[in-house]
Amino acid sequence: MSFSKEKTLDYLIGFAFVLAMIGLATWSGDIETIMPELGPLTTGLWIYHNREWMSHPENVFLGPSVAALIGFLVNMLTISYGLKVFVTIALILLLLRLMNSPLAPSFATGLLPVLTNASHWSYIFTVLGFTLILAIAVVLRHHPGKGPERTPMSLKHMAIYLVASLVWILAVWLAGKGQMAGIPPVMVVFFEVLQKPGYNAKIAARQVIALTGAAAIGVFIHLFAAPWLLAAAISLPLVFLLLTALRIKLPAAYAFPVLALVLPQAMFKMLPLTTVLAASFFLGITVAYRKLARAPELVSKNE
After folding, report:
1. What are the DSSP calls for 112-152, one per residue?
2. First CA to last CA distance, the chain
3. How many domains are contained in the chain?
4. Which domain holds residue 252?
5. What is the rounded CA–CA span in Å between residue 127 and residue 213?
6. pLDDT: is 131 or 145 the higher one?
7. pLDDT tens, 69-116?
8. What DSSP string runs through 67-97?
9. d(CA 123, CA 37)
């Protein structure tokens, strides 16, 4: 994978933007001002120039911000942790359909307040501030104009997403590992790939390796480089090298170096294992679904 000077500069600016957020959190001493999904959002918009995301800059601000508010408010309810995760997922799925938005990182900004039991509005203000900056940056620098009309996520795909999420939440609850109910980067990738007709086992395997590897990097570096800023400064380039070696573009992987900084201790220790299990489950379901969906086409061709 070759890089022009412009592409290299994009990476440096993107990483600097994420590190600035962590620096702000370090200065303020408020861990709830850390937004892990800023990494994937910045990568997708500023580095990969994801046209679907960029064609509607207002959604870059509204989707993650409203989702964060949803998760924050759901976390205040006196219901079980697993139910909080499911309700948050369902409401964000509905939000993205109503907005006709493909901005999957909204799941991560919504789930984080539940995972970390956020109790201060500083998290909401962080999401509002940084997504607004990203939306303005898209308008000023990369905005490609309105893209083609996007078809909303089908009700069938929404049902698959919700049923798979419910099955996973119930499975980890029965296993006595309820804290594994929602891993934001995995839920983001699941939303994205579920709508890709050409998705297959080869792609899924590389994505499972990428997500698990990024989670392991985030945990390992944080264990040996305790300061938030130093840990992120080391782990973000390592995730970049991992994705380059695998030859895939996966913005969600860039959430793990920052996610490892904010997770409760019990979840932090289990993050790599939880990630490989969750990614294998959700992406495996997508592969199986795509095979079943293609089966009638293969039969008709043979006939």
Report:
1. HHHHTT--STHHHHHHHHHHHHHHHHIIIII-----PPPPP
2. 43
3. 1
4. 5-302
5. 26
6. 131
7. 999 999 999 999 999 999 999 999 999 999 988 889 999 999 999 998
8. HHHHHHHHTTSSS-HHHHHHHHHHHHHHHHH
9. 12
